[in-house]
Each structure stands twice: as C-alpha cells, then as structure tokens.
Amino acid sequence: MVWTWFMLANPPDLFFLVVAPLRLFGIVFIFDQHDLCPELFRAKFRSQPVIEKIVLYSEICSYRLANRVIVTNQSAYEVAIGRGKIQLEKVTIVRNGPDLNRFRTGPPQPYLKKGAT
C-alpha cells in the first residue's frame, strides 16, 4: 500500500517532525488543529517564554508543512491566516457540536451524577 496523504491532529504540534521527511516524497499533509497550542500551554503552565517560543515555532512549522489546515472555529481560522500566514483557500472550519435543530434540553436526571455534586 502506498500512502499519498497523511492527517495529523494536535496537540502537540510536534507531529511536524514526522511529516517533514514524508513531504519530500510528495505526501499530502492535512493538519487538523483542535487547539491553539501556544494559548493552551500559556493557560495551563503560565508564562514560560522560552518554551512558549518553541511551542509557537512548532505550530508555525505545522502550518507551513500542511497542504490543508482544518480548524474548529473562527478564532482558530483567524490565527491560521494571521499568525500562520496560511492562504485563505487552504484553511477550512469544521465545527464540532450538537445539531441545535435536534438538541433539546430536558429535566435534570440526578441518578446520572452517581452521587457527584
């Protein structure tokens, strides 16, 4: 079997290290960005400038190697276009959430919490 495309999702954005040599052989890389890793890192670990620069560099490398970028919302789209300098036609928003036409609220069901508060 010959692979012609490769799809990876983050975090972490370090997968670009795997993809870089494959791109030399014409493999198509689709980067499925679930989270903005620099922001996620900062939120979890506070400011650590050296590591933040590495995380940001990794994200940019992932963008640059990708033939196509998939993001989950408008904010991530704008980051890909702005910070990642990705061409508009290479980025697609694929939302993930309930279909609000089918999603209905209902009464609480405490037994589902199994004693949790």
What does this entry look like structurally?
With 117 residues, the chain is of the alpha/beta class. The protein has one domain. It has helices at residues 16-23, 37-45, 49-65, 74-82, and strands at residues 5-9, 28-33, 68-71, 91-93. A 4-stranded parallel beta sheet has the order 1-2-3-4, with helices on one face. Strand 3 (68-71), helix 4 (74-82) and strand 4 form a beta-alpha-beta unit. The termini are far apart.
Relevant terms:
single chain, 117 residues, alpha/beta, four-stranded parallel sheet, 4 helices
Strand order of the largest sheet: 1-2-3-4
The SS-based structural class is alpha/beta
Which stretches are poorly predicted, pLDDT < 50 over at least 5 residues? none
SSE string, helices as H and strands as E: EHEHHEHE
> Into which percent range does the helicity of residues fall?
25-40%
Distance between the first and last residues' Cα: 52 Å
What sort of overall outline do the alpha carbons produce when their principal axes are compared?
extended
The DSSP helix count reads 4
Largest sheet: 4 strands, parallel
Radius of gyration over alpha carbons?
Answer: 18 Å
Assembly context of the chains:
single chain
Give the total of domains.
Answer: 1
Global mean pLDDT: 86
**Strand residue percentage:** 15-25%
Task: Please outline what is shown here.
The chain is α/β, with parallel strands linked by helices and 117 residues long.
What is the topological layout?
Elements: E1 5-9, H1 16-23, E2 28-33, H2 37-45, H3 49-65, E3 68-71, H4 74-82, E4 91-93
Parallel strand pairs: 1-2, 2-3, 3-4
Helix pairs in contact: 1-3, 2-3
